[in-house]
Amino acid sequence: MNEAIIKLSAQGLNLWFGNKHVLKNVSVTFPEKQVTALIGPSGCGKSTLLRCFNRMHDLSPDARIEGKIMLENEDLYDKKISVTEVRKRVGMVFQKANPFPKSIYENINYGLKINDIPSKERPAIIERALKESYLWEEVKDELKKPATRMSGGQQQRLCIARTVALRPEVILMDEPCSALDPISTRKVEELIVQLKKQYTIVIVTHNMQQAQRIADQTIFMYLGEVVEEGRTDDIFNHPQKDLTKNYVSGHFG
Ligand SMILES: Nc1ncnc2c1ncn2[C@@H]1O[C@H](COP(=O)(O)OP(=O)(O)OP(=O)(O)O)[C@@H](O)[C@H]1O
């Protein structure tokens, strides 16, 4: 990770919800075209941190943020960058698949439309996104079928297709497999490993095996602070801090 380009970073990030100090002086880096897992016990601030990276807190009136978030050398909170542009460059996949109540095709087409992609270019982009998400073979003959009739795992891969269709630079994933069975989970994990060839990925997970299977780098958080970050193998097998050791060995959390 040392030689890799740093695609995304937070520097001295603090976040409060009202009086509650939820992120405390967080400084982290995310190497380009690698998967970084955010781990830590419930409530330590993983999702809150993830959401800072595509300005999901902009609409929360009680959230106050200090510090910097840089996408390469651009400040994502600079007033000159619109939220729409940030979210195009930094896509997000949520815990529960959330397809629109429309056809499989329209689920991807919609994002292209609102981002002003010319209609003649869209069919090829939709096909590419479905191929990149390992869904094309399963759905190519039923693109008009309502997305809500797909299996949970397929719906989650459709949400990933919707995100990659816009060619983001970073993909944020908030426990994308927590509602999936083991087979669908494996498919999404394989997909994530493929996607990192093109995208920088940050994933929140409670699943320690998952972090070890797919993440190049792991960040362990506790009570709003980063305790330790490093190569996944080091965090799990040679942690520097007792707190990390106790967490990854299942003593709490
Ligand atoms: N919109 C909000 N308003 C007030 N407090 C919030 C809000 N969102 C999160 N919190 C609080 O911030 C803290 C961090 O929550 P967060 O969801 O980021 O933790 P997490 O590590 O992702 O937890 P989990 O693993 O359970 O999802 C928690 O104490 C939570 O109650």
Automatic annotation (TrEMBL):
Tell me a GO biological process for this protein. Answer: phosphate ion transmembrane transport
One matching Pfam family is ABC_tran
Q: Which residues form the ABC transporter domain?
A: 8-248
Which UniProt keyword terms apply here?
Answer: ATP-binding, Nucleotide-binding, Phosphate transport, Transport
Q: What GO terms are given for molecular function? A: ATP binding; ATP hydrolysis activity; phosphate transmembrane transporter activity
Q: What is this protein called?
A: Phosphate ABC transporter ATP-binding protein
| Record carries keyword rRNA-binding | no
Q: What is the lineage of its organism?
A: Bacteria, Pseudomonadati, Bacteroidota, Chitinophagia, Chitinophagales
Q: Name one GO cellular component term.
A: membrane
**Classification via PROSITE patterns:** ABC_TRANSPORTER_1, ABC_TRANSPORTER_2
Q: Which InterPro entries match?
A: AAA+_ATPase, ABC_transporter-like_ATP-bd, ABC_transporter-like_CS, P-loop_NTPase, PstB-like
PANTHER family, per database record: ABC TRANSPORTER I FAMILY MEMBER 17 (PTHR43423)
| UniProt cross-references to SMART domains, sorted A to Z | AAA
